[in-house]
């Protein structure tokens, strides 16, 4: 009896698939600190410009033109950073690309700390923008590649959540810190990120792509735990990577290659075309145009809390409701909100003064306390804008980043993710420049009606072109684009 039992027993104990997420979460946190820095740096002018206008040094006083560049030059830097990441992601890996961003980020903040001329402050903003472009391209890919399907949705939302936290941190610190100390404070998370990433493994997919199987095995074991079935996952990654070859121009004719790239680029383009960037940048002028007047410090906190709440909801629902369901919900909420905003401004007389005349002083434009109490007529635009921000942050904000990192083919992931960031920031830059000209010419009705139409197109685009990636491995997603029929990968 005992002999029979021994003969029936396997020679090797069956490996469980008990995945431990502790180290994975630490690695993801280490990486998404870059998004915290990104959010902090992006909204930096909102707290700094009011203080600059009160400086005793006249060399630091900015006119409207310089203020415009101080805000927008970050986007130009992000484009440069995105282009750089197209090369860096595949040459030195996702993790090291994130670490490289420490150089322009630290240099930019230090330049702002020491700057005694406006052009030095502009250069500092440009450098922090370059760092932001690099991290925006690299972090979603790194987090996606180290995650397993069970947590990829939640972790994929972390970049957006951390960016919102970064913005909130800037708003809060701006209440108590001098603007130079705000720049010093920006260096702190940069150094923490660099320190933590020194101890984090590279992406297993990147290591496999560079013929470092043993290192990839150790990395995956570290991310999943020794009790997990990481060897099976490693073999699956290896099969997927080995089926790829270096991308050539002729490869773009293949649906397996061009479809996910085109979907990713169009999603980032249409994400910005919803108008979220000019709405956030010109939030106070929009409220002034519609007779809504809030204390800007309170307004910034309200916006930040709404963004944070909606992104947190999206993170909780992403792996339950699915990506497409949230995209539909997000676009529909934004559609209703932009439509109500457009109708309100069409029916309500609007201040037709131009942008510079509409803001009586630079202090009012960037941070003065002001305003009569909100009456019932003011609630419609206020609630509409809050729901635009809520809808965006619940779906089209975080999910476009996540889907980009999930559906891009391995051979083109580094280059294509950089291209997506470039398209996104270029669109944001142009749309932000055009927005106020459209408002001056046609009033708020026209741009919000345009954003409303874009939201409808986003719903159609999601239905026709976007695949549901909920609960799928990256290899299954690639197989879907390869065959066009199924997510299932045959075991060999």
Q: Give the biggest sheet.
A: none
Count of DSSP H/I helices = 24
What structural category arises from helix and sheet content? mainly alpha
The residue ranges in which pLDDT falls below 50 over 5 or more consecutive positions are 7-14, 351-374, 488-492
Strand elements, count: 0
**Principal-axis shape:** globular
Q: Beta fraction of the residues?
A: under 5%
The chain-level mean pLDDT equals 79
- End-to-end CA span: 36 Å
Helix content: over 70%
Rg: 24 Å
Provide keyphrases for this structure.
24 helices; mainly alpha; 492 residues; single chain
Written description of the protein model:
With 492 residues, the chain is mainly alpha-helical. Helix content is 76%, strand content 0%. It has helices spanning 2-8, 22-42, 44-52, 64-91, 94-100, 102-114, 118-146, 149-173, 179-197, 204-209, 213-224, 230-242, 255-273, 276-281, 283-289, 296-321, 323-347, 355-358, 362-366, 376-396, 398-407, 413-442, 445-465, 474-483. The protein is globular, with a radius of gyration of 24 Å. The chain starts with a helix and ends in a 9-residue tail after the last helix. Residues 7-14, 351-374 and 488-492 have low confidence and may be disordered.
């Amino acid at each position: 009896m005992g002999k029979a039992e021994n003969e029936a027993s396997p020679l090797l104990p069956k490996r469980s698939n008990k995945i431990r997420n502790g180290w994975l979460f630490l690695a993801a946190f280490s990486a998404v600190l870059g998004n915290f820095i990104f959010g902090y740096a992006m909204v930096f002018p909102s707290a700094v410009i009011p203080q600059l206008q009160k400086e005793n040094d006249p060399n630091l006083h900015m006119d409207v033109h310089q203020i415009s560049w101080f805000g927008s030059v970050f986007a130009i830097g992000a484009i440069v950073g995105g282009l750089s990441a197209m090369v860096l992601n595949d040459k030195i890996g996702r993790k090291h690309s994130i670490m490289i961003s420490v150089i322009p980020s630290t240099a930019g903040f230090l330049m702002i700390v020491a700057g005694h001329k406006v052009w030095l402050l502009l250069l500092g903003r440009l450098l922090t923008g370059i760092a932001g472009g690099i991290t925006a391209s690299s972090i979603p890919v790194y987090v996606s590649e180290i995650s397993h399907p069970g947590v990829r949705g939640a972790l994929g939302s972390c970049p957006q959540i951390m960016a919102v936290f970064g913005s909130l941190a800037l708003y809060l610190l701006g209440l108590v810190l001098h603007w130079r100390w705000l720049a010093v404070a920006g260096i702190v998370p940069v150094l923490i990120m660099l320190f933590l990433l020194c101890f984090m493994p590279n992406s297993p997919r990147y290591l496999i792509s560079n013929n470092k199987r043993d290192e990839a095995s150790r990395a995956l074991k570290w991310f999943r735990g020794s009790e997990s079935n990481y060897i099976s996952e490693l073999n699956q990654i290896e099969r997927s990577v080995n089926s790829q070859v270096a991308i050539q121009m002729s490869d773009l004719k293949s649906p397996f290659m061009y479809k996910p790239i085109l979907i990713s680029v169009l999603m980032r383009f249409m994400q910005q075309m919803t108008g979220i960037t000019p709405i956030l940048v010109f939030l106070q002028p929009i409220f002034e145009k519609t007779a809504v007047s809030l204390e800007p410090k309170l307004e910034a906190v309200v916006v930040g809390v709404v963004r944070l709440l909606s992104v947190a909801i999206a993170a909780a629902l992403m792996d339950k409701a699915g990506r497409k369901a949230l995209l539909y919900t997000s676009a529909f909420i934004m559609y209703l909100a932009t439509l109500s905003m457009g109708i309100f401004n069409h029916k309500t007389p609007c201040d037709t003064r131009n942008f510079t005349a509409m803001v009586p002083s630079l202090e009012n434009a960037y941070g003065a306390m002001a305003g009569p109490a909100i009456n019932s007529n003011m609630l419609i635009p206020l609630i509409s804008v809050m729901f635009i921000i809520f809808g965006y942050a619940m779906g089209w904000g975080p999910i476009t980043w996540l889907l980009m990192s999930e559906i891009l083919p391995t051979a083109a992931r580094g280059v294509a993710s950089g291209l997506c960031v470039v398209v996104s920031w270029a669109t944001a830059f142009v749309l932000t420049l055009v927005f106020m000209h459209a408002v001056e010419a046609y009033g708020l009705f026209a741009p919000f009606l345009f954003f409303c139409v874009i939201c409808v197109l986003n719903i159609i685009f999601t239905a026709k072109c976007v695949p549901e990636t909920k609960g799928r491995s990256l290899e299954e997603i690639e197989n879907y684009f390869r065959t066009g029929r199924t997510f299932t990968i045959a075991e060999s």
